[in-house]
Specification:
homodimer; alpha+beta; Arc Repressor Mutant, subunit A; Chorismate lyase; 2 domains; elongated; DNA-binding
Chain lengths: 244, 244
DNA sequence: GAGTGGTCTAGACCACCTG
DNA sequence: AGGTGGTCTAGACCACTCA
């Protein structure tokens, strides 16, 4: 057993080397420059001996590091420190109400419009339905401490959620309603920026052309595209944070 | 052994039930509404018997689903389907050059400015250094097919990367240089939107006040904040996609 | 062909939390 | 107090891919 591992054992706990300890140690070795970018690191077998634990434990540590883009692994070739800076970051996408309440602000909601109309060409394409089909269109506004926080424009596929037709969305936003009633589904997010239209500026109490942070979310269930929604938030007030 | 598992076995492979099969089956049950939002699902022990595999395998499947926010787990309480729509999405943050070349466009680079100057108050705070300390400031432009794609404003902490002082950044952008020479480190990303200043508009060949998608990235090594960088991209041309 | 990572097992102990 | 998930082990077989 090499001395540095022995030190770890003495300094650390008596419990067996955990995969988390190994993760930290690998990160340390990379950050300290001991294992350089692009270089191959020892195999699982060797590491398990050095750390004095089973290969399964080493495997979990290295696997998780590979999942987050720190390491690259290939059978037979081995494991190396990632040289590309393509990093996988974890992004938490909260529901609006929670986001606001978590910051200790009062959440407010106002329905602006709910209509059932034939899908515009662009929307029918996104929802993968015929152009003539009716879709439910909901526009609403979310407030933080009575200040407009986010504008929501949503199209719902009635074939996927027929109950939405009878839902007024007067009191509860479509987001919350969907979360409560619909099973968890696959999502795709597209982030971009746009200039506020005159209408958007009026609703959000900002100036026309002010920068908006735009989140477009598509949601699928087993057989349908459920909904597509765009959230517009004033860029001056909105930040989305991700940490690895 | 229950019939549905038997079916799986007959329809699928002869190999033992893998954690991936279980993940898919759990997702299916959730999407199909068999396991509803907020409801508790069977424990690992019970599931391992139903799937005819070891508890370890079930554990891995459920753990990964919990990691991505689909399930919530607590000891003793059990595992339930997430009721909040707080979803963890995986975000791939590529280096600019790769991003452009992956789309089959030509990558171009131009250094605008490289100075060494006392850190402005805002930057020294972010880099966790004294205000009087010198920092390296680099401004450069990235092109896709000769069209301005992204404006980069970077501050480097000389204490963390002394070699950066001697680097001209004439030919190679600081991003690529850092990736090649510095060990992988911890990162934080903040996404927001802003209006282009007159100067930014000129450089990016857009109109003043046009919406910009802004990525701010901070990078740490073991002992220092290495760098803080802001990437400005025209919102009309830039999209960042994340999928679970 | 052979070495690496990818996965599964059966069993075990433990930390945490709820009832 | 007891059940649940969290983790570790030792061993095994396999898939992939490099030389």
């Amino acid at each position: 057993m090499p001395t540095d591992v022995l030190e770890e054992t003495v300094l650390g706990s008596i419990r067996p080397t955990s995969f988390q300890t190994i993760k930290q140690d690998v990160l340390h070795k990379i950050r300290a420059g001991i294992w350089k970018s692009g270089a191959y690191i020892p195999g699982e077998q060797e590491l398990s001996e050095k750390y004095g634990c089973s290969r399964t434990t080493v495997n979990r540590a290295l696997r998780e590091l590979a999942d987050s883009g720190v390491l690259e692994r290939r059978r037979k070739a081995g494991t190396k420190v990632s040289s590309t800076s393509v990093q996988a970051a974890r992004l938490w996408i909260p529901i609006v109400r929670q986001e606001i309440e978590d910051r200790g602000q009062d959440y407010g909601y106002k329905l602006l419009e709910k209509t059932i109309e034939p899908a515009p060409a662009a929307i029918s394409k996104i929802l993968s339905i015929e152009e003539t089909t009716d879709v439910i269109c909901v526009k609403c506004l979310h407030y933080a401490d009575d200040i407009p926080y986010q504008l929501e424009e949503r199209w719902l596929n009635p074939a996927a959620v027929p109950e939405a037709k009878d839902q007024s969305f007067d009191e509860m936003g479509p987001n919350e309603w969907l979360v409560m009633t619909q099973p968890v589904a696959d999502m795709e997010h597209v982030f971009t920026a746009s200039n506020a239209t005159k209408e958007q500026a009026g609703l959000l109490d900002i100036k026309e052309k002010d920068a908006l942070f735009v989140i477009e979310r598509r949601t699928w269930s087993e057989h349908h595209t459920i909904t597509v929604v765009r959230f517009f938030s004033p860029g001056a007030r909105y930040k989305m944070v991700s940490q690895v």
